[in-house]
Amino acid sequence: MSYQAIKLRLEPPVCYLQLHNPAQGNTINDQMLTECLQALAALSESAHIVVLEGMPDYFCLGADFSGLQTTNTPTQTPELYYSLLQQLASGDFVSIAHVKGKTNAGGVGLVAACDIVLADNSAEFSLSELLFDLYPACVLPFLIRRIGLQKAHYLTLSTKPINTELALAWGLVDASDANSASLLRIHLLRLRHLSKTGIANYKRYINQLYPALEHNRSTAINANRAMFANPETLNKIKRYVATGLLPWES
Questions:
Q1: Domains present along the chain, CATH in parentheses
Q2: Catalytically active residues, by annotation
Q3: Measured distance CA(105)–CA(140) in Å, rounded
Q4: I want to staple 103 with a disulfide (CB 3.0 to 4.6 A). Which of 14, 48, 107, 222 is the partner?
């Protein structure tokens, strides 16, 4: 299968899935989401470990708003985005986020949804949505599951980035190293020995223990749609895309 917004490398039982939208800062659009979901479905028999990666300087900078100027609608459908987060969290494979550089907004959701998060010392994580009268509706169910309500609350309200050291202390990152590629290899040496059946049975059980991801799906998606139905909010985003100016800057 040919992909435009992602790159795949298969080394059974491991699949390396790289988000690849460099022209837009590795931001998320429907093409990327669809290709990720198609890839995960196609690889269900050949891989039981999926390594999600970004670019060397940034993992993912959130939603791709480049199309707002012409279509007046976001290029990231919340249903598709939430479905990908659910697959990473609940699919019958071990999902590993391998993070380098900056991660913002929806990119934090991708990280939080993964079973294991490995980062190098350059990694930064931020939720910038409130700067534009938005909030991370679809991200929060996954982020709260990983780091707890108050830390997710703080990250949302502060809009400030946190570094790898703090992300590790909070539990957003599971392990870090200056050489994250070596850290990933060490983890894969062990994970390769797990069976597809064992992983599937365990993930099914953990999903039953924590059913909130499915229960919160419609609430998160409806909240996302309501936010992007506000013309004033859309104008703030479009102005930022066109000029780089934040809402309070002239």
A1: 6-178 (3.90.226.10)
A2: 64, 129
A3: 10
A4: 107
